């Protein structure tokens, strides 16, 4: 039996022209409800990432509005991640938006008033630290995925639960978006989870689903199976590993883990139970 999947990072929201294209299927996105349900997906953490767009606030309001509509209509449980929190600093109804959030990343790749992403090198600002603590107090889980090393160190030093919704292992592939082993351990010690992403640039040369399994197993080896999850980044990347078409790939990944000797409980933990546990705890 295939486990139920909690995919902790998809960028599908801002790729959708309307709610119906998600609910009934489309040929635009890598994720939609019919394909996801057939593959065993029961929860999706849907990102609103607007700091990469030209009309940032327009995209922000569109993403929030579409999320609200889909939460009411979808038979898959949808949760919300704000990827880049600068919009929270520019709206009057900040508390209302925070109530919608399950996860938040202070920056995207660049630098904003809160801190620095991987294309920069600064640490968190006081505003960034204050917002991180406010979000934590409100039950929102902080995501380190796009932070540069200095900003990530600053966030980890706050002593709050942190996660990486879509990051891989720097010891396997040395790129800035991947996490050093010590930081993976710190996230685990905070009670967090690291979600392995399917982006080839973060997996390694000639990436396949075997490479995805390599990163999963490394995180489990240096922490515990309870700290490993999935965060595909479907619809956030044009290119996918060899043999990965879209969200229909999930059963093949779990079949591979079974062939590698994983027991059913470990597969279920990584497929979704670990993410479910920490979202319920928050």
Structure in words:
This protein has 282 residues and is an alpha/beta fold. The protein has a single domain (5-281), classed as Metal-dependent hydrolases (TIM Barrel, Alpha-Beta Barrel). It has 11 helices and 8 strands. Strand 2 (41-48), helix 3 (56-73) and strand 3 form a beta-alpha-beta unit. Helix 9 packs across helix 10. The chain starts with a strand and ends with a helix.
Brief rundown of the structure:
By secondary structure, this protein is an alpha/beta fold. It has helices at 19-23, 33-38, 56-73, 94-100, 126-137, 149-156, 181-189, 200-203, 209-222, 250-259, 264-281, and strands at residues 5-10, 41-48, 77-83, 103-105, 141-143, 162-163, 194-196, 228-230.
What are the SSEs and their pairings?
Layout: E1 5-10, H1 19-23, H2 33-38, E2 41-48, H3 56-73, E3 77-83, H4 94-100, E4 103-105, H5 126-137, E5 141-143, H6 149-156, E6 162-163, H7 181-189, E7 194-196, H8 200-203, H9 209-222, E8 228-230, H10 250-259, H11 264-281
Parallel strand pairs: 1-2, 2-3, 3-4, 4-5, 5-6, 7-8
Helix pairs in contact: 9-10
Question: Class in CATH?
Answer: Alpha Beta
So, CATH architecture?
Answer: Alpha-Beta Barrel
List the uncertain runs: none
> What integer value in Å does the Rg equal?
17 Å
Proportion of residues in β-strands: 5-15%
Q: What is the share of helical residues? A: 25-40%
At CATH level 3, the topology is TIM Barrel
* Widest β-sheet, arrangement of strands: 1-2-3-4-5-6
The CATH superfamily name is: Metal-dependent hydrolases
Quaternary form:
single chain
User: Mind describing the biggest β-sheet?
Assistant: 6 strands, parallel
């Amino acid at each position: 039996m295939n486990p139920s999947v909690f995919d902790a990072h998809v960028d599908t929201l801002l790729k959708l022209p309307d709610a119906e294209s998600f609910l009934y299927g489309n040929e635009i996105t890598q994720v939609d409800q019919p394909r996801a349900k057939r593959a065993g997906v029961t929860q999706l953490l849907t990102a609103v990432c607007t700091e990469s767009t030209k009309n940032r606030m327009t995209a922000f309001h569109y993403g929030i509005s579409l999320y609200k509509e889909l939460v009411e209509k979808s038979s898959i449980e949808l949760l919300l991640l704000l990827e880049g929190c600068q919009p929270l600093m520019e709206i009057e109804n900040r508390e209302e938006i925070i109530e919608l959030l399950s996860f938040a990343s202070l920056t995207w790749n660049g630098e904003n008033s809160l801190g620095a992403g991987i294309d920069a090198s600064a640490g968190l600002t006081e505003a960034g630290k204050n917002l991180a603590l406010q979000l934590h107090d409100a039950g929102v889980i902080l995501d380190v995925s796009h932070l540069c090393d200095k900003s990530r160190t600053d966030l980890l030093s706050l002593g709050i639960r942190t996660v990486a919704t879509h990051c891989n292992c720097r010891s396997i592939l040395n790129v800035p978006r991947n996490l050093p082993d010590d930081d993976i351990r710190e996230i685990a010690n905070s009670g967090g989870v690291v979600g392995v992403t399917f982006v080839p640039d973060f997996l390694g040369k000639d990436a396949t689903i075997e490479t995805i399994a390599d990163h999963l197993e490394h995180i489990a080896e240096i922490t515990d199976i309870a700290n490993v999850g999935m965060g595909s980044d479907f619809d956030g990347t044009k290119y996918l590993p060899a043999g990965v078409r879209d969200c229909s790939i999930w059963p093949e990944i779990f079949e591979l883990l079974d062939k590698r000797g994983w027991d059913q409980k470990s597969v279920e933990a990584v497929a979704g139970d670990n993410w479910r546990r920490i979202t319920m705890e928050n």
